[in-house]
Amino acid sequence: MKRWMAILPLAALLGFGVLGAVQLMRPPEESFTAKTDRVAPDRVFPLLDDENRTIGFAPPPGDKPVMVNLFASWCAPCRAEHADITRLARAHPGQVYGLAYKDAPEATREFLAELGNPFVEIGVDRSGQGGLDFGLTGVPETFVISPEGKIILHVRGVLDEQRAAEVSAALAG
């Protein structure tokens, strides 16, 4: 009976080890799209081109849903999704905004000079706290916000054709 009691903790430890190994071997979910009903953060951001002006998204500017893409010049996936963002901006003029996350303004300007600027306006989140208030887990991430200031769609990771189509549908209302 005593041997059985000694083996029990060892068996539990082995079970947790197997469970951990299975989780580690599972491929990470790099991107997902989720419909939400959270309120956009009540925070304003200085604009990239004029720090004396600010922009906020609770509620967003205008009377249509808007897309806010959190990006950074140092982020390789942000570069990869830039063409999809440009297409969305052409399809939905005046509805695509950017938020430069933990990026130096000069680096953001160079990034946009190289790839083009599809955004109506770009806010600056130097500290990163604004991104965290949105629910950011890592750049790039895209949020669609209703005219009432609710986050109605959250795309974590790189926009691709399918996710861009979901964002486009949400922007169309």
TrEMBL record:
Its main location: other. InterPro entries: Redoxin, Thioredoxin-like_sf, Thioredoxin_CS, Thioredoxin_domain, Thioredoxin_ResA/DsbE_sf. Keywords: Cytochrome c-type biogenesis, Disulfide bond, Redox-active center. Gene3D superfamilies: Glutaredoxin. Residues 34-173 form the Thioredoxin domain. One of its GO terms (molecular function) is disulfide oxidoreductase activity. It is found in: Cell envelope. It comes from the Bacteria. GO terms for cellular component: cell envelope. GO terms for biological process: cytochrome complex assembly. It holds the Pfam family Redoxin. PANTHER family: THIOL:DISULFIDE INTERCHANGE PROTEIN DSBE. This is Thiol:disulfide interchange protein. It comes from Henriciella mobilis.
